Amino acid sequence: MITNTELEYKGDLYPTKIVSFEHEVDSIYFHTDNSVILKVTVLRDSLIRFRFTTKGYFSKDFSYAIDKSHLHGYNFLKVSELENYYQIITSKVKCRIQKIDMRLSIYDLEDNIILEDELGFHWEESYEYGGNIVKMSKSSKDGECFYGLGDKATQMNLKGKRLENFATDQYAFQKDQEPLYKVVPFYIGLQNKQSYGIFFDNTFRTYFDFCHERRNVTSFWAEGGEMNYYFIYGPKMQDVVTTYSDLTGKPELPPLWALGYHQCKWSYYPESNLKEIASKFRELKIPCDALYLDIDYMEGFRCFTWNKEHFPDPKRMVAELAEDGFKTVVIIDPGIKIDKEYSVYKEALENDYFCKRADGPYMKGKVWPGECNFPDYTNPAVREWWAGLFKELISDIGVKGVWNDMNEPAVMEVPNKTFPMDVRHDYDGNPCSHRKAHNIYGTQMARATYHGVKRFAYPKRPFVITRSAYAGAQRYTSSWTGDNVATWEHLWIANIQVQRMSISGMGFTGSDIGGFAEQPSGELYARWIQLGVFHPFCRTHSSGDHGDQEPWAFDEEVIDITRKFVNLRYQLLPYLYTMFWQYIEEGIPMLKPLVYYDQDDIQTHYRNDEFVFGNQILVCPILEPNAVGRRMYIPRGQWYNYWTNEEIKGGKEIWVDTKFDQIPIFVKAGAIIPKYPVQQYVGELEFDELILDVYYKDGKEKSVVYEDAQDGYDYKKGRYSFLSFQATGKEKELIIQLHKEGKYDTNYTKYRINLIGLPFKVKMIEIDNVEVSFDKNTLDIENYIIIDKGFTAFHITGE
Questions:
Q1: Are 571 and 677 contacting, i.e. CB atoms less than 8 angstroms apart?
Q2: Is residue 22 part of a domain?
Q3: Does any domain span residue 107?
Q4: What's the rounded mean pLDDT across residues 99-123?
Q5: Glycosyl hydrolase family 31 C-terminal domain location, by residue (predicted)?
Q6: What confidence score (pLDDT) does residue 546 get?
Q7: C-alpha pair distances (Å), 208 with each of 166, 218, 406, 494
Q8: How many Cα atoms sit within 13 Å of 264 on the Cβ side?
Q9: Are 705 and 602 in contact (CB under 8 A)?
Q10: What is the tens place of the pLDDT at every residue in 72-87?
Q11: Above 80 in pLDDT, residue 778?
């Protein structure tokens, strides 16, 4: 019998006084007299890693989230010992670590506090599993706001919330329900006009409390592993998000068709049904680039097989769809049916590629094929084998994209809906239980899928989409927000989720337009498509259990609205492609919540609905039935109503009238918005002019346009076109200066310049200092002029 209560339950433990420190290049080690070590690593002047151990030494340093290809470096580092604390100074921040208890605080160079420990690091020994429950608590200032954390179905500002990160198959989830499919343990704090970020790189089940339990305390903790977090200093939210994107990585450019409209359902079969869907899109002239095949295309739900009754010749079918512009995307799940006649199962069994329970037997669980075993994607050999399985689908049959589902991993008919926690994983040579590997299982599956699709799609670019993901998954895959519901509440949730994912490093995300579960009304579907075309990933997807959800499943008015907004997306493809280029090059999120766009305006701190699409288009969806308008907040600056071209001054909330076939859209004054003509699919048309919508501004505004061959890898060899436009408006002048970078020459030869909001009648036009003639009546009436694309300066003078 144990009578020592201290041994029975120690409760929370804390670092004691620091007894020594050492400085090695970019890292400083602090040792306490109870064997706690804090390693502080300065990766950049504004990016500092804090890693704690309680056992007197560090385990192997390994992370799936960090992009190891990205090099870091600081400009200045000074470490000094003072009477009560140690001080680390970079060119951006000061970090002070108290000698008595290892609590730390971070200041800007003017000694304004950015972030400080409350209790700081502490831990609780886990007698059930071994190791520690690691905890961190920080003081929070009055008025502090919190954003990010990836896929959360709650308010944009997380103040007052407690949230959980454990990848979960959450069918038909509700507002504020926790946890969901994705795990992004990264948040942004904003107080006193200063932003900072915290990335808690721990793959165990984690929790975040943003002043929920205690009013001025923010905390985060994990059920195992290390207290290992990165501090990122802004002071602008843009700087925080960009640095986080550099840290965890960015994708390569998708093929342009992947940014088109996609149509999906559980399930389109047989072949005649899929062909009928394709034909109807072309008949109704609603653009569409991709059609999806859900699990029913397989033979008995066995991955990498085809049901020959429903799809007797998949290669021919895929080729015929491609002739009409449709790319075929197929689903692949992680559950491999236990069937000794099934080649994929036999290969995995022979090579010992399946996950095992602690006592040795393979992990067995029921999913769509029945009883299944599951590959251990944390094993590099398994990932390599899995990648090779895509040869037939991609190289031989011609499938263009792969959709990974059920990879939380989801298991049916068990209480926790996933693997038991005793399942073992290789974890790239760092063996562990499912407690540690659960949250990254889906990412490693998507990683293996990406490498397979990329290998066999080459020289074209791969397209992969995943349901479950951990921070860093954006390097391999796009994502969607899971099994939502056809309700107005879920339309609100979708808007929030995709904005939040965008500032959490996973920009290539969308929702199931119209809702996966249940059936939307025509009005709800129309309002959802009006939002969905402004999401980076744009796909209608639904469960076949609840009726049809193609645009023509509704009345003519909804068909017309769908066509109108999908047409608008295809017109804006060069703008969207440019957004993506800036995302992968500079870490700039494609969707910007208003607080990201203007953090100094306190009115933006609690806005949910409005967002900036790219850099210059403001979008506000209609989220209620029977709406004839809505109140919305216009950010500071000058904006034009997209539908009426009326100019308004921002920095205020206004009422905006809207019809059923419109939502509030505004364009920033001075913007130059590139457009293509409407196509039924990417690459359908050869066109000779790029449309440039020029919105007049009294002042200067820069706009950019990125273009390349729309697929392939020549862009990495400099074969791209990057146009920088500088628009300068004066009382009776408009000057547009153009600078081009890159070796790619676009097929079109002209620009059609649409002049919007010009406050004067045109008297003279000069191109590269040479006066040119123009049709004054046409310009006055239609407000456009066509010029050759080779200009460097375009000058309009008014009367």
A1: yes
A2: yes
A3: yes
A4: 98
A5: 587-673
A6: 79
A7: 12, 8, 25, 22
A8: 32
A9: no
A10: 899 999 999 999 999 9
A11: no
